[in-house]
Amino acid sequence: MKKIGILFGQENTFPQAFVERVNKTAPTGIGAEFVQIDKVMQGAASDYTVIVDRISQDVPFYRAFLKNAAISGTAVINNPFWWSADEKFFNNALAVKLGVPVPKTVILPSHELPADTSNTSFRNLAYPLDWDAIFNYVGFPAYMKPFAGGGWKNVYRLEDKNEFYEKHKETGQLVMLLQEEITFESYYRCYCIGGKYVRIMPYDPRNPHHARYQANFADKPKLLKTIEGYVLKLNRYLGYDFNTVEMAVKDGIPYAIDFCNPAPDADLPSVGEANFEWVVATMARYAIERAKAAKPKLDNLTWGQFIQHAVAKTQLDETSL
């Protein structure tokens, strides 16, 4: 029996519907359940062929459990090693290299010294930073938000440099991004599953949270095709099996605003019935595909093209020695 498990926290719609859908549609020999953990021994295989991870970003114990399961052959969605390494500033830098439009963005050192450091820990950091160059590059209004993500927590819209200095004091030890504001005429949140299944959803972040998916923007097939291409390219390079990409359209150009969401919102009251049905059905289909393809005791993780290209180059360099 190949078991598909889902690891989750406070969600009460998607995990339940996902398990039900897998058990309804999977062929004989594949089934789904909520993950149960009673011990984690080093190097020991888990009971699961596939695990869908919805919570390890908040629970370090779960992240360690998933890495241990992965090295023994479990296909973890998303790859816990890459998820541990990724963050939003790198994502933007990668997008620039891929030719995907993104807002002008800089990364900032934390306002307060990190724990167990002192001023001498930062002898390589110029003080003050070249604030004029930073502000001229990004412009105002601008957004400031944590480089490691966290939903809409600690996100600031700033009108000028004086407001920046005031609000930056509130960020403590958080490492922040300062990002150009994209004044958009339309906005989309896009599910991407398996690097091949995409659902483009009109979305308006200016609405209250419960109404953000209640957005109506004119359908423009050429624009939506461009958005789909960017979504696929980003996720294939990053290697995410399940992610959302937010695209803001300004002057007809879609800008990737946020695309490091490996445990994306899939709650029925939030995303609405049609989107919920799509994400449940598609995630169940993809998890079954991964269970069928999994090889016992081998690496069954997804590694993005960014990593694959680096490995291929290393192998080529070694053969030339």
How would you describe the oligomerization state of the chains in this entry? single chain
Radius of gyration: 21 Å
- Note the gap between the termini: 46 Å
Number of helices: 10
Your description of this structure?
- The chain has 321 residues and is of the alpha/beta class.
- It folds into three domains: 2-85 and 284-302, Rossmann fold (3-Layer(aba) Sandwich), CATH 3.40.50; 104-180, 2-Layer Sandwich (Dna Ligase, domain 1); 186-273, ATP-grasp fold, B domain (D-amino Acid Aminotransferase, Chain A, domain 1), CATH 3.30.470.
- Helices cover 36% and strands 20% of the residues.
- The chain has ten helices and twelve strands.
- The protein has helices at residues 14-25, 60-70, 80-85, 88-98, 131-138, 161-168, 221-238, 268-271, 273-293, 305-319, and strands spanning 2-7, 30-34, 50-53, 75-77, 105-108, 142-146, 156-158, 176-180, 186-193, 197-202, 242-250, 253-258.
- The strands form three sheets. A four-stranded parallel sheet has the order 2-1-3-4, with helices on both faces. The protein has a four-stranded antiparallel sheet with strand order 5-8-6-7, with helices on both faces.
- A hairpin with a 2-residue loop joins β11 (242-250) and β12 (253-258).
- The protein is globular.
- The model has no long low-confidence stretch (mean pLDDT 95).
